[in-house]
Amino acid sequence: MEPHPGLGPGEEVNLGPVTPPRTAASVIVVRGGSASLELLLVQRTPQARFMGGVWVFPGGSVDAGDGPIDHPEDLQYALRAAALREVAEEAGLRLDDALMTPFSRWITPAHLKTRFDTWFFVAAAPANAEPRVDGEECVDFRWIAPTEALAAHQAGQLPLVFPTIKHLEQLRAFGSANELLEYSYELIIEPIEPRIVTVRDELRVLLPGDPGYERAGRA
Considering the entire predicted model, what is its pTM? Predict the structure, then answer.
């Protein structure tokens, strides 16, 4: 596998001590039932210093009001609370917690200043519900198939960042929303922590399994 390019808008390399990642939750909201698969992307306001103008899955950091995160049971409760809150705030959707399943966990590379330890969940959109962005943090939304999103990104029409791209590449293998949801029920979540290397004066992101990943280290 080739190294992957990549820093997003506002991402900066950290030359000092490693920044502890902030705990966060994001939701891959899907629709289409057994017939198709579309997912919800929201566009962050272009005025944001970090990831301005980028299209992402709804989500954000865990707040104190979401609950403690010191123990695994508390962490999962807080993550779910944050996920539900962020989707409601950013996309105007009220999801069913009981139907929301963990899908992946990504930790920002230790080389970057702004870091997150993000759990991604999968959830079906409520029937006949239509998203509504808040107009401040998020300014637009779209339902889109994974292959269409990747093609739009390649054409320069849909700004995406590395974790979103890698999720879309995985999601395009599913033929329907129901197939994806059924798959997610049986998942065992292992953290994915990309690492950054410099190749010919260009920063590249490596994933587990990429050549050079183990040599890259964590700091």
Answer: 0.91
